[in-house]
Amino acid sequence: MTTLWQSLLIALRALRVNKMRALLTMLGIIIGIGAVIAMVAIGSGASKMISDQISSIGSNLLLVLPGSVTSGGMRSGAGGTQTLTYDDARAIKAECPSVGAVAPSVRGSGQVVYGNQNWSTVLFGVTPDMVHVRDWTIVAGRNITQSDVDGATKNCLIGQTVVDNLFGGTDPMGKIIRIKKIPFTVVGILGRKGQSPQGQDQDDVIYVPLRTAQRKLLGSQFPNVVGSIMVQAKDADVLDKAEDEVTELLNQRHRIGPNREVDYTIRNLSELLAVTEQSSKVMSILLGAVASISLVVGGIGIMNIMLVSVTERTREIGIRIAIGAKKRDIMLQFLTEAVLLTTCGGIIGMLLGVAGARIVASLIGWPTLISVNTIIIAFGFSAGVGVFFGFYPARKAASLNPIDALRYE
């Protein structure tokens, strides 16, 4: 311990003699560690943002969409015709044991008016399960009920963007708004969701009862059809089983045989989340790997300066060996200097990396996620660089012949 302490004091003295050279030597490590922490923080933040956006859609979800059909030799393309019905949704809920909730919907858009304010927004005809499937909180009022759906009532839920643009500071509860000139009563306010994975504002929305949308608001030549069906499995473990059950049921209901084209599409949103998260993690690793190149460059700079230091202090090394210093003492001295350089550079780099990540977050609104584990690994890596790149110069110093060293001018 005494030898290590003495080596540390000698290393500090040696670095103080050449402050500017020590600072320039540390610069590669400072930039490397700072870049690694900043890049990993930005990459992790982007990964979390994407995961949060996908998770905001809901959990354990299957999305059933209309598929393509062929008529007269012409294929309509995916979603080119309406092939799903409200009866399909009710059958899925009743006959698929692994399914917990089913939310059919129709979508449109329209102008909404309240007083002297108006706003163009997205309109959805939904059932009560939509709020549960989407994991959407209701911050005021109540949800749409099955009675609202069956009776095609003129009640609605509104999103936060609609609240901000139509009502300002006024309480919307119980107010009458006009959607496409039809009066609706606001019975509930949806909590804030933010952007979807496609960048759309999920809060710019109005929910009305499904039957109301079909019969009075959006209109259709096929009043029982729905644009999509969201299916929520009872838990993640039975999601694949739920997908098989839904597929089998829809094949039966749509009379789809072995040689007939499937007229619907089922998308597993949990698989989309897993693939996106994996892609984001790979991107974070790549960003960190690219930034780590500067650490290698910095380590080579450390080795270069330590070799110069050995050459400059050859006579000092010869004197130390002549008065009884052992080879391991000489090695420890130069290794300590190398580790001290990289450690100091690593500490400064960590501070700059954290500051840089926060500056990026504040300037462009990009979220960053600074992990304690990343900081610890970066700090340990900086010390490891000192040992790795300082070993050869230290070994060279310890291998000097004391007679030749004393003769060195």
UniProtKB/TrEMBL annotation:
Domain of life: Bacteria
GO molecular function: transmembrane transporter activity
Transmembrane residue ranges: 21-42, 285-310, 331-357, 369-392
Domain MacB-like periplasmic core positions: 23-248
Cellular localisation: Cell membrane
Residue ranges of every copy of the ABC3 transporter permease C-terminal domain listed in the record: 290-402
Principal location class: membrane
Bilayer topology: Multi-pass membrane protein
UniProt keywords, alphabetically: Cell membrane, Membrane, Transmembrane, Transmembrane helix
Entry GO CC: plasma membrane
One Pfam entry name: FtsX
Family: Belongs to the ABC-4 integral membrane protein family.
Name listed for the protein in its UniProt record: FtsX-like permease family protein
Origin species: Geomonas terrae
